[in-house]
Specification:
Layout (H helix, E strand, L loop, with lengths): L23 H11 L3 E5 L5 E6 H14 L6 H4 L7 E2 L4 H9 L5 E6 L2 E7 H16 L1
Parallel strand pairs: 3-4
Antiparallel strand pairs: 1-2, 4-5
Length: 136
C-alpha cells in the first residue's frame, strides 16, 4: 500500500465558513444546524484568518457574565494561531500531524487560500479504502 497518496482525494471541499464579521449567534446556530464542531474563518479574498470552534463560542458565556452582553462577532472569539496543511501534503504526513496534535481537523491551504479541510475521520476513511484496495 502506498501511503504517500496526496490528500486531494480525501479532503472535504464543500465547507461551511464564517467571515470575521459574522455575528457569534449566527455561527453558533450554524454549528447546531449543520452538526459541526468548528469552521474556518476566511476574509473576502478567501484567505484563512482563523478557526472558530465550539470551545471558542463558549467564551461568549464567560464574557456575558462580565459585560452583561451575550453577543459579538466571530473575530472576537476565533483562534488565529491555526495549524494548516498544504494541499500537496501526503496522507502519512497528515496522519503524523494528527498523532502529534489535539486537533480533530486541519484547514488545507493552497498558498494562502483555503481550499479544503481534512479530519481524523477522513484519514481513517482513506486508510480503510486503501486497505480494501490492497486486498482486492
Amino acid at each position: 500500500m502506498n501511503i504517500h497518496y496526496t490528500i486531494h482525494k480525501y479532503m472535504a471541499t464543500n465547507l461551511i465558513t464564517f467571515s470575521p464579521d459574522t455575528p457569534i449567534e449566527a455561527a453558533i446556530e450554524s454549528f447546531l444546524t449543520h452538526k459541526i464542531s468548528g469552521a474556518p474563518v476566511v476574509d473576502v479574498a478567501g484567505k484563512l484568518v482563523g478557526v472558530l470552534s465550539e470551545k471558542d463560542c463558549m467564551k461568549t458565556l464567560m464574557e456575558a457574565s462580565y459585560y452583561n452582553n451575550l453577543g459579538g462577532y466571530v473575530k472576537e472569539y476565533m483562534s488565529t494561531d491555526v495549524t494548516t496543511i498544504d494541499v500537496n501534503d501526503t496522507l502519512s504526513n497528515v496522519a503524523d500531524s494528527f498523532m502529534k496534535s489535539r486537533f480533530r481537523r486541519f484547514p488545507i491551504l493552497e498558498g494562502d487560500k483555503l481550499v479544503g479541510q481534512i479530519s481524523r475521520r477522513d484519514v481513517l476513511r482513506a486508510i480503510h479504502q486503501l486497505s480494501n484496495e490492497a486486498q482486492s
